[in-house]
UniProtKB/TrEMBL annotation:
Record GO terms (molecular function): nucleotide binding
Domain Gfo/Idh/MocA-like oxidoreductase bacterial type C-terminal: 211-330
Species name: Marinilabilia salmonicolor
Domain of life of the organism encoding this protein: Bacteria
Signal peptide: none
Name the record gives this protein: Secreted protein
InterPro entries registered for this protein in UniProt: Gfo/Idh/MocA-like_OxRdtase_N (IPR000683), Gfo/Idh/MocA_oxidrdct_glycsds (IPR050463), Gfo/Idh/MocA_OxRdtase_bact_C (IPR043906), NAD(P)-bd_dom_sf (IPR036291), TAT_signal (IPR006311), TAT_signal_bac_arc (IPR019546)
Domain Gfo/Idh/MocA-like oxidoreductase N-terminal: 44-168
Amino acid sequence: MKKNKNSRREFIKKSALGAAGLTIAGMGMSPKSYAGIMGANDRLNVAIVGLGRRLGAYIPPISDPKSNVRLLYLCDVMQSQMTNAAKRFGEVLDYRPKLEEDFFKVIDDKDVDAVFLATPDHWHAPGTWLANAAGKHVYVEKPCSHNPYEGELLVKSRDRYGKVIQMGNQQRSSIETIEIIKEIHNGAIGKPYMAKAFYSNGRGRVVNPTKAAPPEGLNWELWQGPAPRKAYEHNTWDYNWHWYGWDYGTAETGNNAVHELDVARWALQVSFPEAVMVNSGKYHWPDDGWTMYDTMDATFRFPGNKIIQWDGKSRNSHKTYGAGRGTIIYGTEGSVWVDRGGYKLFDRNGSLIREKQSGSNEGGTQLGGGGDMSTLHAQNFFEAIRGKEELRSPIDEGATSTLLGHLANISSRTGESLICDPKNGHITNSFKAMELWERTYEKGWEPKF
């Protein structure tokens, strides 16, 4: 523990981040060999921080010779995660990345150009702006922030440090989704006015958290990072932090709704809502350890009377129109069904005009193992760093879509419908709700611009 605290202090000092908080002031060659020598001046050195369920999504784009990247670090606060990641990358790389527990040592290495950040939610924004301050580009998984304020700070970090920040809402890189969204914008369904986004999963009973010693190999101090310190509770670190209160997670809305809400917002060409109305509750296993809602119905109203609806069911896997997740866009002359597997275009009477399926292995409610969209999204990140492509999910877009999830959570937690400023999404009708715009940080982790 002492080692990590010292390395953090040393990093802050060297990076001039301030003392009163984290101030953001060929032929015959194998593919492995080919990747090792091609375009050295164009090569990017990358690190992965957080080696859990998203690990499989990074293996194809990083090991692909066309990406022209070299993996310098595998970083995680759990030793077993690093061991597993080293084994999996060892099957596709002919060199060994360094294994490092300490995030600060990774971003302090001047050879690192970019970082993939796949940590728990509470680390996403602080990890991103710290990496930016150290001169690194960042691919941050959704949700890009733990609360609305952090989303605003991420845009400021991008502007201050001039680094690329891509959020991992991978459907922005789906060839089929890009195609049909362009058609919608060109009038394929007339004027789009409403979108319905949905997600259904069959998550089961969650054990009740009880105080326990951290599991062997886990650096609990570093895992907590910017969150206020508390004793370890059984079964928290791996995944159940999503459902054990608001210190670390953002519930299902942050965990999954961000994907479909982003597609809906993209299709309707809207930014910030002017009103948010939510009904939510915990309906399954009332005596288990799940402390969040497990069911939510949310409506977002935007300028121009455009509407996005969210139907989220964490623990009831009954499908909507035969699918576990997706988005339906309604227009004056037709409608579109779109998910990770493709799209269907209908006329106003509901007759199918055209259907296109991608064959991607990223369909359904899971997105852990990666696939076509994840590979394309990461490669777009690489090319944007090189100045050869525009980002498909720049952080201002990612933060705006993430904000919808935060606003739904705030409405759920306060029991209030929200009136928002359509210029920035700020809540204008409730001081109680605006108190949740930010979070409390562990001393020394407070961001100050």
